[in-house]
Amino acid sequence: MVNKMGGLTMSTAVKTRASVSKALSEAERNYLKQGLKQPGGKLPLFDRRGQEISPDLIKGCLKKGLSERWFANPLKPDWLVCRLTEKGRQAL
To answer: Model pTM?
Structure first.
């Protein structure tokens, strides 16, 4: 809902956040949670076992706006160095 001032009402904002949160897979949620603990919301390239995080998982979070590219790594241009967005924080 939009109020007379053109802003969203509280119930709409809460419903939107809840729908995004429910849309997260377990893998996305686990990946994004790791950014909560890091400076600048940096997201990992590798999981706790040292295995590379799936590029499809990372690209899915980018597409949904839950993360954003942070910088390009000149030594490894195929690596997706990302950080958590505010939308990603709210979804968690």
So the answer is: 0.73
